Amino acid sequence: MRRGFTLLEMLVATAIMGIAVVGLMSNLSASLRNAARLTDYDRAALLAHEKMDELLLDPQLPKMAVVQGVFDPAITGDVPAGWRAQLTPFDVPPDAPPGSEILEQLELRVWWGQPKNPRSLVLEAYRRGRLPGGQQ
User: Fold this and answer.
1) What is the mean pLDDT of the chain?
2) How far apart are CA 52 and CA 48, in angstroms?
3) What is the CATH architecture assignment of 7-130?
4) Looking at residues 28-33, what average pLDDT do you find?
5) pLDDT at position 3, please?
6) Could you tell me which residues come within 8 angstroms of residue 135 by beta carbon, excluding any fewer than 6 positions away?
7) pTM value > 0.85
8) For residues 38 and 8, what is the distance between their CA atoms, to the nearest angstrom?
9) Cβ within 8 Å of residue 111, ≥6 positions away
10) So where are the chain's domains?
11) Strand 101-112 relative to strand 81-91: parallel, antiparallel, unpaired?
């Protein structure tokens, strides 16, 4: 009566375990890359919402002009990031006199990542405004 494993059985079992471990490690590596990518996206979304709130509350924000800036690397996790915004009239009644209330659209684009291949997201918001030329 024989007990134990033969050398061939041990080699086959080791090969199967090696293949399984390589597969698990590659899946773990891909999961970590996705987690880092999602962390960057979540951080950018939070910064975008914060910047959008700041811009919506700014009464001196110029209309029909592009305003842009960069975020402090300390709050972006040392990932280069910045923003670009433009406020435009959205809903203007026909023949509206100066000083009439209108709806303005604020478009904010936040970018992050390497300058050669940046990622970005766009937010849009609306606020009430007035046509220029009337009493404020």
Assistant:
1) 89
2) 6
3) 2-Layer Sandwich (3.30)
4) 84
5) 77
6) 99
7) no
8) 45
9) 81, 82, 83, 84, 118, 119, 120
10) 7-130
11) antiparallel
E strands in 1-136: 66-70, 81-91, 101-112, 119-130
Helix (H), strand (E) at residue 122: strand 119-130
Q: Report in angstroms the alpha-carbon separations of 100 from 17, 18, 63, 125.
A: 74, 73, 15, 20
User: What contacts 70, CB < 8 A, 6 or more positions away?
Assistant: 80, 81, 82, 83
Give the tokens for residue 23: 């597969």
Average of per-residue pLDDT across 7-26? 89
H helix intervals, 57-79: 73-76
Task: Name the residue type at position 19.
Answer: I
- pLDDT surpasses 70 at 1: no
Q: Note the pLDDT of residue 40.
A: 86
Tens of pLDDT, residue by residue over 51-84, are 999 999 999 999 999 999 999 999 988 889 999 9
Instruction: Please name the residue that has the structure tokens 């773990």.
Output: 28
In b/e form, how buried is each residue of 83-117, taking b as 16+ CB within 10 angstroms?
Answer: bebbbeeeeeeeeeeeeeeeebebebbbbbeeeee
8-state DSSP, 16: H
